[in-house]
Request: fold
Amino acid sequence: MRILVCVKRVPAPGAKINITADGQDVDTAHLGFAMSPHEECAVEEAVQLVERFDGEATVLTLGPPEAEEQLRYASSLGVQNAVLLSTDGSAWDPQGTARAIVSAVQSLEAEDGPFDLILFGNESADSGGYQVGVRVAHALGRPIVNAIKGIEPDFDAGTTRVKREIDGGFEIYDLPLPAVLGVKEGLNLPRYPTMKGRLASKKVGVKVIEAAADAGGQGRVRLRQPPAQASTMVKLGDGPEAAPAIVDLFEELGLLK
Amino acid sequence: MTDILVVAESDADVLSSATLEAITAARSLEGTIHVLLFGSSVDADEAAARVGAFGAEELHVAEHELLGDYGPEAWGQALALAIDDMEPDVVVACGTSKGNEVLAQAAARLDLPFVANCIDLPGELADSDDVVLTRVQWGGSLLEEASLSAETRIVSISHHAVEAESIDGPAATTDTFVPELHDTVARSLCVGREMAEAGVTLSTAPIVFGGGRGVGSADAFAPLEELASLMGGRVGCSRAVTNNGWRPHRDQVGQTGTRIAPELYVASGISGAIQHWVGAMASKKILAINTDPEANMVVKSDYFVQGDLHKVLPAVIDEIKSRRG
Reply:
């Protein structure tokens, strides 16, 4: 059983995101980096599946050489193999990203056999294009369902039952393997790396593949801040004495029936 | 003449209100608005009246035995075939989970770009195959101006970016489109549902009581629960709360949780990191209860009560009970 998890290195911002002077990128001078939150759950799921069913997991990222940090983080949690599709760090459009991943998956599968499952985060935390996983799945001729919050595979039968989050519940799908999934945070609660895991991850060999740029029809002109909203905040009061003013507000908005 | 194809989303047998947002947004383009509806579970006459009221002129009902329930590949292939057949200049859906998924599926099949979650549709989108669109990044806390070069422009409009507005138009004319779907799309059809609860959900509740790290523990959510139950609302929380295991992830409001849009969001003990703010920012009004007047949530709120939520919320419960006698 083989699982591939695709992750993206993104800045980890706090209450405000600053932009570089040329408007091309997020100013990361004072920021740390992480993988997107949905992808942390994808990595955790892959590790849990390997623990339950045996087999091996591989983590792959398309990004600058620094993205090795995210690959080693996944290794520290128990992912066996790491692949870096190396770029110059510029923003790649979704079609170009998908093409590079498809070509890498094909060469990895030619060497070591097919991946039963390929996991993507539902969308990246930064650019949020909502499509790379779908494009990869289509190019590989495999099914994909997004917004997945539950995975119950039967590798012997070659199928997996998955649960998609919808408002107020879940939809159920039964997919044949190999399959691709876009997963969401809430699928599981990701573990933290152990000291032993951290040390071991430093020795993991990262396979580096130069990614060939083959851009699609979407490009970045610039990033900008949303228009600042003038603060219209009204202070209703201090402490429990403000309770009548709060309930007045509920009544005024027609919320207290 | 420009043709704009709006992709309808339906939930069981009901046309989703997100579709009406997409039609409203499409009205900013000069052209004929067509709507593509998948399957026959939604009553076509009702749908024609509904989409017509919002400005659509033609409703195309895609009929096929594999379009009974939702399937990302079935809908995506039907849309790709409809695009081949109708040759629209612009294809628009609302940027919901399924709206973006179906557009991505169709774009992948046609090898066309797809620009997700635009905040508006500029007029030149209708007649230029090289346009600049403004779309959301970081769940809406940053904007990106993105160029799009394609003969067929496939875009989604960010959910809640446009308010659906009827123009009381006449019912759309209706016809049937029969796509020749490939059998393989059957593999990703929805085969069932598990509905967790009846009644309001986080995304439909008129009032949401959100708690953050400041609540302090799972047990300390009791007054938020009581308020939600008194007022027919729901309890929400920040990512810090779910990461601490105090609440299940389904209660999380945020970029990676649920986007809410209630009449009033009462945010107690929430600092307002970007992750949370973008899930809450579509709320009509926000009341922040916090000890820190400088907190991001407070600065961005409409109403603010400075104080300890553990004292304020019980007082609000008492006040509601005494007014109700």
